[in-house]
Specification:
This protein is α+β, with helices and mostly antiparallel strands. It folds into 2 domains: about 1-75; about 110-330, 2-Layer Sandwich (Endonuclease, Chain A). The chain contains 10 helices and 8 strands. The protein has helices at about 1-10, 10-30, 35-110, 115-125, 140-155, 175-185, 200-220, 265-280, 300-310, 320-330; strands at about 110-115, 130-135, 160-170, 225-230, 235-240, 245-250, 255-260, 280-285. An 8-stranded mixed beta sheet has the order 1-7-6-5-2-3-4-8, sandwiched between helices. A hairpin with a 3-residue loop joins strand 5 and strand 6 (about 245-250).
Length: about 325
């Protein structure tokens, strides 16, 4: 009953109009009532009045609702403006977080490995690579492992191989002496090859790398090799393959840095090595075809090679010295063993 009373209070005008409509309908079907026409007219007027009252009441209710909606929209607009500013702050914060994460990721891939792991990492870098950039001292490890193994793999797979080498200029006695002095300052004991570092050894090692590059080029036509002779020494060695950059020191027992190819540091090192090579004295290896080398080059062939390359051998070099350079070129010892 209470629910009906509440409902009737809310819908009284519509209920009265409905009752009047029913009364008029009853009269219209033939119920005899005195002053029938007057009753019908009065009922119609009452229904119209109730409808007008209902319309006015709805409009009265709608006005504060519309005002409330406008106020709500204004408040929402202000809230959205504040939210937009907060979103801008969040976007900037997310950008800072993204940059920080990237920097941490880049730092994480610059791995530090022990000297005992260097040989294994370089072996992984040689696997399936189609390029090799090197900058360092005399290129002993290049002759012993990198160049012959990369050439052998490229020959098996019948693909091209790109080599870029920068070593000390053997005709620059001053830089060779500085390098030998540095190596002795690190350790005065023989290195992995069993030899001590002297100015003469430094020069012969560099001459041997030049000879080895020409020898491999003559035997594998798809080897694209470029070589530069540096007038300054470096205490670091850079080896860049398709997948890694490996940065080592002259001491094989020291730690090394390893950087993956999908990180921007790799691109930095690649550009640095190329620019450094462009500034070095170039070895015209394409001229080596004018001085063919046998599988076991003779002393005369080696002398002729350096002559057509325009690289002067040290004065006083005997046939024995040239034979030693040939041995170092084709049968170099691995300094990491």
């Amino acid at each position: 009953m209470t629910r009906f009373a509440i409902w009737l209070g809310k819908n009284a005008d519509a209920f009265i109009a409905l009752v009047l409509a029913i009364v008029v309908a009853v009269i219209s079907i033939g119920l005899k009532i005195p002053n029938e026409n007057q009753v019908i007219n009065s009922a119609i007027l009452a229904v119209i009045g109730l409808l007008a009252s209902s319309i006015l009441r709805d409009r009265g209710r709608r006005i504060p609702v519309e005002a409330e909606v406008r106020d709500t929209l204004r408040a929402s607009s202000a809230t959205l403006d504040g939210l937009s500013e907060r979103l801008e702050h969040i976007e900037r914060f997310e950008s800072v977080i993204s940059d920080t994460k990237r920097a941490l990721d880049e730092t994480a891939v610059v791995r530090v490995i022990s000297g005992a792991q260097v040989g294994q990492v370089l072996a992984e870098a040689r696997r399936d690579t189609d390029r090799w950039f090197f900058k360092g001292g005399t290129g002993t490890y290049i002759r012993a492992r990198t160049l012959p193994e990369c050439v052998a793999a490229a020959r098996r797979e019948r693909r091209t191989l790109l080599f870029r080498l920068e070593i000390l200029d053997p005709t620059n006695v001053g830089v060779c002496e500085a390098y030998a002095r540095h190596r002795r300052s690190v350790s005065d004991e023989p290195d992995g090859t069993g030899e001590q570092w002297t100015t003469e050894r430094t020069r012969k090692e560099a001459y041997a790398t030049i000879l080895a590059a020409c020898w491999h080029k003559q035997r594998f036509g798809m080897l694209d090799i470029d070589m530069g002779l540096s007038q300054t020494m470096t205490t670091l060695r850079y080896d860049l393959s398709k997948s890694w950059v490996v940065v080592t020191r002259d001491d094989p027992r020291g730690e090394a840095l390893v950087i993956a190819a999908d990180k921007f540091y790799y691109g930095w090192y690649s550009a640095e090595l190329q620019i450094s090579l462009d500034q070095a004295r170039r070895v015209p290896i394409e001229q080596a075809r004018l001085a063919p080398l046998d599988d076991e080059p003779t002393v005369e062939e080696a002398r002729k090679l350096f002559e057509v390359l325009g690289i002067e051998l040290a004065r006083g070099y005997t046939d024995r010295d040239i034979a030693e350079i040939i041995r170092k070129a084709l049968r170099a010892k691995d300094p990491f063993e």
